[in-house]
Amino acid sequence: MSGERRSAIQSVDVGILRFNRELGRAEILLLKRQNPDEPYFGQWALPGLVINGDTEDQSLEAAIDRLLLSPKVGFSVSHCEQVVTVGNAVRDPRGWATTTVYMAMVDDCVEVEGEKQWVDLIAVSERRFLLAFDHNDLVEKIRARLAGKFRYTSIGFSMLPMKFTMTDVITLFSVVRGANPAKGKTSIIQRVKKMIEAELIALTSETVQLAMGRPQNLYLKLKPEVIFEFDRALSDG
Questions:
Q1: What's the CA gap between 171 and 180, in Å, rounded?
Q2: Which residues are in coiled coils (predicted)?
């Protein structure tokens, strides 16, 4: 009917991030769209769900918790925070659509299969791996938020395993921020020392042999749930 207006679609989407030590890259979880009656069937997208659809949600926090517990994700995350809300009349072919975007981290290499896969975060943010809807743009917003918070908090450590090397830290920070690993190395080392002083991480007596170079010391996260705020922003020099 010409006078009818469809209700706006409201959803939550989440970018779940991990550090792949073997490949030296940050990765994001993607989900293949399974419903042939919905747009972009068979294409990759961020995990998401409609708010107040078949299930009534009392808050955005309740909706994102429901998403994380659903089969679309189905594993625990070490940190989750809201990034942005976007909405317009063209991002979904079904009509006006608004989504609230979250980013979350896993601190170990959770493996997935079937309709889920881990994909290089930078490839997605740079549109070298295309997603459904406007999800490439959402992923770039997630990457930018992550890079920004790397500058003044310890949030990046939420993506590292419980035991990690200094090379892991430098590689992860450089990849996400688009920086040369040689630049900012001194500042990153100083950050690790600050976190040792704050008793958030500890230098262990263990070492690990990487593919190249000498054995490296392993550090241990003592309070992985704590996000530390530094008194100075991370330098690129």
A1: 9
A2: none
CA–CA dist 46, 28 (Å, integer): 9
Least confident of 119-123, 134-138, 207-211, 226-230: 207-211
**Spatial CA neighbour of 156 closest among 136, 184, 126:** 184
DSSP code per residue over 177-223: HT--TTTTHHHHHHHHHHHHHTTSEEEEEEEE--SSSS-EEEEEES-
Distance CA 163, CA 176 (A): 20
What would the pLDDT profile of 157-176 be if each residue is shown by its tens digit?
Answer: 999 999 999 999 999 999 99
Rounded Cα distance, 234 and 91, in Å: 35
Domains in the chain: ranges and CATH: 9-149 (3.90.79.10), 152-221 (1.10.10)
Average pLDDT over residues 108-115: 86
Residue range 64-75, pLDDT digits in tens: 999 999 999 999
Edge to edge, what strands does the sheet with 201-208 contain? 163-164, 216-221, 201-208
Say whether 15 sits in a helix, a strand or coil. Answer: strand
Angle at 78 between CA 73 and CA 80, to 5 degrees: 70
* CA separation, residue 25 to residues 36, 50, 120, 184 (Å): 33, 31, 7, 18
Q: Report residue 15 as tokens.
A: 């970018």
Query: Quick check: 38 and 91 in contact, CB under 8 A?
Result: no
